[in-house]
Amino acid sequence: MTTVVKIGGARAVDPEGALADVASLVDDGEDMVVVHGGSTAVDETLEELGEEPTYVETPGGVVGRFTDERTMDVFKMVMPGKLNTDLVESLQNEGVNAVGLSGTDGKLLEGKRKSAVRVKEDGKKKIKRGDHSGTIESVNADLLETVIAGGYTPVVSVPVLGKEKDGEYTAVNADADRAAAAIAGALEADLVVLTDVSGIYEDPDDESTKIDSAATPAEFEAVKDAAEGFMTKKVMAAEEALEGGAASVIVASANADEPITSALAGEGTTLEPGVLADDEPEPEATE
Question: Which residue stretches belong to region Disordered (predicted)?
C-alpha cells in the first residue's frame, strides 16, 4: 500500500526527520508520495517584495489566503520552484530518486477556478473578486502510479490546474492539506499529515489531551469540535481523504523521531473510515 505524507510549511516544522524517514521506508520497499505546503515561505517572499499577504475569513469561520494575481505569481515561483526543488534535492541526498511535480504537470490535480469568494468582514458577508484559487475535482492517479512503478518517489506541490469558465486552463492555488487528501483518496493510501503538534487535542493548549484515535461518527464529531484554527482545515481535509477512499488519516508531529514510521505505528491522532456517517437509511422492522 502507498503512503502519502504531507509535510507542513509552518516555520516550526523541520522536514529533515521526515525526509530521512521517507528514505528509510523507501529503502524497505514502501511506496511513498510526498506532498508539501509552504505558506510561510510564500508570505516571507511577499514581504521581501514589499507585498502584504491577505487572509480572509469565510462566513463559516474558516480563515484562508486570498490569492490575487501578484500572490499567484509568487506561489508559482516559491512552491514548485524553490521549495519543491529543495525537497527533491534533500531526498536525492538521502538516496531517494525523487521527482518533483506540481499539480499542473500532466493534469495531476485539476479543478475549477474560483474567481470570487464569500468572506466575512466587519460582521458582514461580502463577495471578494479576483481570487486565483480552486477546488480539486480530479487526480491523475495513473501518472503517480507510473512514476512510482518506475522506481521514483513523487514530491508534489500546488498550484493545481484550474479550468476557467471559457474552458481555458490557468494555474491556481489550493490548500496543500486538501491536495494531499485528494491524492491519498485516489490512491486508496494511508495519509500522514505532519505538522508542528503531536495530534489533535481536546484542549488546543494542552498536549496531554491528545485524541489518540477516532473510529466512529460520534468520535469524529468530538474531533471536529476540538479542532481550532489551522487544525480545522486539516480535519476537513482528513474527512475528504476518507470520503475519497483513503485507508486512514493520521495527524502527527513532523518533529518526532521517525515521524512517519511512528505515526503509522499509532502515534498522533488516527482517523479511520468508520468515522464517516452512514447515510443509508435503516431498514424498517418487519413482523
Answer: 261-287
